[in-house]
């Protein structure tokens, strides 16, 4: 039921309260407070108004006043939804420590109240204080001796061992864990252990103590029966593996596989155990006693092969043909090769294994995924032979088309596998072009014949032809005049998306290519159709949001940054709540996982980058002294835990058939590790831009007594920054290769280092430092230096004029935006300089003093004028770039291709996107012009 | 169905995009997943392929009082690359087995009346349309849901799967 109906006045009240919500949402707490006072004046006892006031005060840092209001309010026992929501928001936003204090007091006043004790315990869970958790759980258990509370004590002790003081102190860890164990055995001895969760906790303790034998013993006993949701045999297998009891592993795996042929992990364990048994068997001296009874165990490759064949035979009448045992032969082959045995004797020709598997399962899309991890069993020659053999199997020549949907899938599979085998490498441009054309034709035929009647939620069966064509186009784009192939790829993908609107692979690819060419609006539209949200904002943030900062499309940046930051900040608060779920439901074994996950998300590199990008946007927006203060606050709020930052990209989402990624996925390559290091360096370097501004403002605001300290701090910042840059320039600056489509775009570090961020900004800060010292000579020196630096910016800009290759144009944008950031930063520092030499109207100074002051002031003003004239030049350069986008270029490119696309639309999209970027950049330049000139003139 | 079935973990949320970007699979806010992971971890299982891709997953829970104690399928999804391999059946079997162990009377699920593929699949797995829930899915326009059920061994007389004659409103569904 809606609140509107319950109370006739509510719509009026709601209308009055609306502005408060709006001010709060936009972060303007001062206005919100004024609005609260206004409403409360009219409506003295409006509970929701009071709650909103409390929230506002809290956000202004006036905690005590907030708590006073909340205390009064809660004693009134409000019941309406809106008020309660605001109150709980207050509690959520309040520093967790304060909530602990609140409950500590409450428990003291009402020591027998079970609920308050529970709240206190949970509040300690949220701050992660395991010792206090333990104490409060003990107090709770004393009040109400229930098993769950007992388990809370034990879990709190375990956490002290694993994540608290025991983490670094092995003996502490042992002591704590044995205490936990004793507490659990007591529960068993007293015959009190009952619930499944309690048994799970017991197992958790034993596992941490590596008492695996005891776990196995427990699983076989009466306690094992309490584990109603567990699969005991699989659990036992885990512990046999931990104990490296290969005989038992072998026996258990065979038992499971006889029942369900397709448990892949079990197949792998089984084959591993065979080889462990085999090698320890042939090394008779190391064989230990438990290997004496090997009867019935498969301890040779021959027996293993026999077992696999047996399963294949017994499964032949199954409804679904089972892939497990067939794939197990590849795993066996892999192990044989690993141990340098010959495969051929046992399994025959390895190449033939691939062909057979393909014959059986080639009509399923997963066939390629199954086989790709084993392609390295083949030599280079065998690989190229495999490609040829598979094509023969499929029976489609250069002039024929598939006769059935199954044959089409076979064809697609064969094409994908031959690319994985390297068949597309070292081909001539003509050859690649022919392949591209053939693939496009196959797609069009396949779509017409097999793809038209499908529901719009299905991925078309011929779509993979088109995706492969795009990959070939991407290869071609690396040849001379390659830009046209990227345009063709966009045309083809747009076509594909129209036919198959749920094909997210196509959408991901087109977003990527749009970004390469700088069509941000195109990318943005497709991105929205992917409906990416929640945690995907982190894992997939790199595909769009992460590329925006250097486009100059500031309005789109702002939308995506805000969405991203909102997700992270609300989950930062929520995620402590999730920890309490584990105690509530007794899923103790999930706690470690939940805590790791929380840490992983909160320390996302993408999040930290977006936070910094967001503040940079504020910097570009900053056009007044008030703006300066807001900027200062947002910089002060940046919290980055550098040592814990993590890359959470889901790179596997881009499909690839490049041989480089056959065996190991993209995210496990050294290139990705290097990219991460470069991204980290970039973020550090970039955040120092903000630290410089913060330091400058701090110096300008600090009172005489603290001036020296803040001056020193700023000097240190400059020094650290220069060192960081030096360090970055000396590190491995090889960009991530761009010839493979599955790699993410290169680090922004490279673009950063081509622009004199450090030298230009530091020279302005040094000028400011000289001003503070009032040393005229130094002021003049640094004036010259700053002047030189800013002039140099434009000289470089002129060279990088707009190119007709959109990839270059995109790089030009990055270069321009980076320079723009430098200019904006310099403007802000100039603003601080100007403020600091503004003659105080009240003070009367001595004449001599006045002379120096006016000289200094005129230097500052002169520098500001220099900056102004540079801004004007920037604007002119950009204007000349705007004119380099001509319709002609694009049309000739598209005309030379044989794709039926709407040329006009495609080219207008590109034009529009660049036009918007340039317009937004011009706006920023204009506002900076306005800001500086209003002060100077 | 060649797969590795294992409990879903938090980190899987960082890799489930190849399944979740499919338009028929909803990506929920974190608290939703966390609630299920904490409350019914045994009901949240994921299938992984030999090459490490996520093939699909199932999310469910156990609830109800007395003879209404039952397993519920909250979400079942299979990646487009791994369809028509019998994976959905494997995941459903798993959930049914867990529900059997918990001594539930039946398993139920909701499905859009327009989702013929899914309805056919559930029917093949032994589910019947127990009742229609009017305008259960909000959208433009709202869509009805079938509440489909399958009796478990504890419901000896198959009382839980006698179809209702009349449709119900969402408020009437507990």
TrEMBL record, chain A:
Coiled-coil positions are none
Alphabetical UniProt keywords: TPR repeat
Keyword rRNA-binding assigned to the entry: answer is no
Specify whether Transmembrane is a keyword of the entry: no
Q: Which domain of life is it from?
A: Eukaryota
Which family, according to the similarity comment?
A: Belongs to the MDM20/NAA25 family.
Pfam families in alphabetical order: NatB_MDM20 (PF09797)
> Which InterPro entries does the UniProt entry name for this protein?
NAA25_NatB_aux_su, TPR-like_helical_dom_sf
What is the official name of this protein in its record?
Answer: N-terminal acetyltransferase B complex subunit MDM20 homolog
UniProtKB/TrEMBL annotation, chain B:
* EC number assigned by the record: 2.3.1.254
Q: Which UniProt keywords apply?
A: Acyltransferase, Cytoplasm, Nucleus, Transferase
Q: Which PROSITE patterns match?
A: GNAT
A Gene Ontology molecular-function term? protein N-terminal-methionine acetyltransferase activity
Q: What is its main location?
A: cytoplasm
Q: Where are the transmembrane segments?
A: none
Top class in the EC scheme: transferase
Residue ranges of every copy of the N-acetyltransferase domain listed in the record: 3-153
* Gene Ontology cellular component list: cytoplasm; nucleus
Tagged with keyword Transferase? yes
Give compartment(s). Cytoplasm; Nucleus
Quaternary structure per UniProt?
Answer: Component of the N-terminal acetyltransferase B (NatB) complex which is composed of NAA20 and NAA25.
Q: Which family does it belong to?
A: Belongs to the acetyltransferase family. ARD1 subfamily.
**Alphabetical list of PANTHER family matching this protein:** N-ALPHA-ACETYLTRANSFERASE 20
The molecule here is called: N-alpha-acetyltransferase 20
* Lineage of the organism: Eukaryota, Metazoa, Ecdysozoa, Arthropoda, Hexapoda
């Amino acid at each position: 039921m809606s609140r509107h109906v319950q109370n006739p006045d509510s719509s009026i009240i709601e209308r009055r309260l609306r502005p408060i919500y709006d001010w709060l949402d936009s972060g303007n707490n001062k206005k919100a407070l004024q609005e609260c006072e206004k409403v409360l004046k009219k409506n003295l006892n409006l509970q929701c108004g009071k709650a909103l006031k409390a929230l506002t005060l809290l956000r202004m840092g006036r905690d005590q006043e907030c708590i006073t209001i909340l205390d009064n309010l809660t004693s009134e026992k409000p019941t309406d939804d809106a008020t309660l929501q605001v109150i709980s928001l207050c509690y959520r936003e309040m520093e967790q420590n304060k909530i602990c204090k609140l409950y500590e007091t409450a428990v003291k006043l009402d020591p027998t109240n079970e609920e308050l004790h529970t709240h206190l315990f949970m509040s300690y869970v949220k701050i992660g204080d395991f010792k206090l958790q333990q104490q409060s759980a003990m107090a709770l258990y004393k009040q109400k001796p229930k098993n769950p509370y007992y388990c809370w004590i034990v879990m709190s002790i375990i956490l002290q061992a694993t994540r608290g003081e025991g983490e670094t102190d092995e003996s502490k860890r042992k002591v704590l864990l044995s205490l936990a164990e004793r507490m659990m055995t007591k529960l068993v001895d007293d015959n009190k252990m009952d619930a499944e969760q309690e048994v799970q906790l017991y197992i958790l303790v034993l596992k941490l103590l590596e008492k695996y034998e005891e776990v196995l013993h427990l699983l076989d006993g009466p306690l094992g029966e309490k584990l109603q949701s567990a699969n005991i045999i699989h659990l036992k297998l885990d512990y046999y593996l931990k104990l490296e009891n290969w005989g038992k592993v072998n026996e258990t795996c065979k038992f499971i596989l006889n029942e369900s042929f397709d448990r892949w992990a079990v197949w792998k364990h089984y084959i591993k155990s065979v080889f462990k048994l085999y090698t320890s068997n042939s090394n008779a001296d190391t064989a230990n006693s438990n290997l004496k009874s090997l009867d019935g165990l498969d301890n040779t490759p021959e027996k293993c092969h026999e077992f696999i064949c047996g399963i294949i035979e017994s499964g032949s009448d199954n409804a679904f043909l089972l892939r497990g045992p067939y794939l197990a032969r590849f795993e066996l082959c892999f192990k044989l090769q690993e141990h340098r045995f010959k495969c051929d004797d046992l399994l025959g020709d390895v190449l033939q294994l691939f062909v057979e598997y393909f014959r059986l399962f080639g009509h399923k899309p997963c066939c390629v995924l199954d086989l790709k991890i084993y392609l390295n069993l083949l030599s280079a020659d065998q690989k190229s032979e495999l490609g040829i053999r598979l094509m023969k199997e499929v029976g489609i020549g250069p002039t024929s088309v598939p006769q059935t949907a199954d044959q089409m899938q076979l064809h697609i599979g064969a094409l994908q596998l031959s690319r994985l085998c390297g068949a597309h490498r070292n081909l001539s441009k003509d050859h690649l072009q022919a392949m591209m054309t053939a693939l496009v034709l196959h797609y069009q035929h396949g779509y017409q014949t097999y793809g038209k009647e499908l529901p719009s939620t299905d991925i078309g069966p011929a779509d993979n032809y088109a995706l492969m064509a795009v990959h070939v186009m991407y290869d071609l784009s690396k040849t001379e005049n390659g830009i046209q192939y990227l345009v063709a790829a966009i045309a083809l993908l747009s076509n594909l998306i129209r036919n198959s609107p749920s094909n997210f692979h196509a959408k991901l690819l087109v977003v990527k290519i749009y970004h390469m060419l700088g069509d941000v609006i195109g990318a943005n539209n497709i991105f929205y159709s992917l409906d990416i949200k929640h945690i995907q904002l982190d894992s997939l943030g790199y595909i769009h949001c992460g590329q925006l900062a250097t486009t100059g499309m500031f309005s789109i940046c702002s939308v995506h940054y805000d969405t991203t930051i909102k997700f992270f900040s609300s989950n930062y608060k929520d995620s402590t709540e999730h920890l309490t779920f584990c105690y509530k439901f007794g899923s103790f074994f999930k706690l470690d996982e939940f805590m790791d996950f929380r840490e992983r998300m909160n320390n996302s590199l993408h999040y930290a980058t977006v936070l910094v990008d967001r503040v940079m946007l504020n910097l570009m927006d900053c056009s007044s002294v008030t703006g300066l203060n807001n900027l200062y606050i947002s910089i002060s709020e940046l919290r980055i835990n550098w040592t814990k930052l993590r890359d959470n990209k889901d790179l596997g989402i881009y499909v690839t058939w490049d041989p480089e990624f056959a065996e190991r996925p993209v995210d496990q390559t050294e290139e990705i590790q290097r990219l991460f290091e470069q991204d980290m360096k970039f973020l550090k370097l970039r955040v120092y831009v903000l630290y410089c501004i913060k330091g400058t403002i701090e110096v300008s605001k600090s009172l005489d007594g603290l001036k020296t300290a803040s001056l020193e701090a700023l000097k240190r910042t400059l020094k650290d920054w220069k060192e960081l840059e030096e360090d970055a320039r000396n590190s491995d600056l090889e960009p991530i290769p761009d010839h493979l489509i599955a790699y993410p775009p290169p680090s922004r570090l490279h673009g950063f280092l081509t622009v004199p961020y450090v030298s230009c900004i530091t020279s302005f800060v040094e000028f400011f430092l000289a001003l503070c010292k009032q040393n005229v000579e130094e002021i003049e020196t640094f004036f010259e230096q700053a002047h030189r630096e800013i002039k140099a910016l434009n000289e470089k800009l002129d060279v990088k004029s707009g190119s007709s290759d959109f990839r270059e144009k995109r790089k030009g944008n990055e270069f321009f935006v980076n320079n723009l950031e430098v200019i904006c930063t310099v403007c802000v520092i100039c603003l601080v300089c100007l403020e600091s030499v503004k003659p105080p109207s009240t003070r009367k100074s001595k004449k001599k003093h006045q002379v120096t002051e006016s000289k200094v002031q005129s230097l500052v003003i002169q520098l500001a004028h220099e900056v102004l004239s540079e801004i004007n030049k920037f604007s002119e350069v950009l204007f000349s770039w705007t004119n380099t986008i001509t319709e002609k270029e694009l049309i000739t490119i598209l005309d030379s291709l044989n794709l039926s696309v709407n040329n006009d639309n495609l080219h207008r999209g590109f034009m529009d996107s660049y036009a918007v970027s340039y317009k937004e950049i011009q706006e920023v330049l204009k506002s900076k012009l306005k800001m500086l000139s209003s002060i100077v003139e | 169905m060649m797969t590795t079935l294992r409990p879903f973990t938090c980190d899987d949320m960082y890799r489930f995009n190849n399944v979740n970007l499919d338009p028929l699979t909803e990506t929920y806010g974190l608290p939703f997943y966390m609630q299920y992971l904490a409350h019914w971890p045994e009901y949240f299982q994921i299938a992984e392929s030999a090459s490490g891709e996520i093939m699909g997953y199932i999310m469910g829970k156990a609830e109800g009082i007395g003879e209404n104690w039952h397993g519920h399928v909250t979400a079942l999804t299979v990646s487009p690359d791994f369809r028509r391999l019998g994976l959905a059946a494997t995941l459903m079997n798993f959930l049914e087995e867990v529900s059997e162990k918990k001594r539930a009377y039946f398993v139920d699920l909701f499905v859009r009346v327009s989702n013929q593929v899914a309805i056919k699949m559930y029917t093949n797995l032994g589910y019947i349309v127990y009742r229609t829930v009017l305008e259960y899915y909000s959208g433009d326009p709202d869509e009805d849901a079938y509440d489909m059920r399958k009796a478990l061994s504890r419901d000896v007389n198959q009382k839980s799967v006698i179809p209702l004659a009349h449709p119900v409103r969402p408020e009437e569904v507990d």
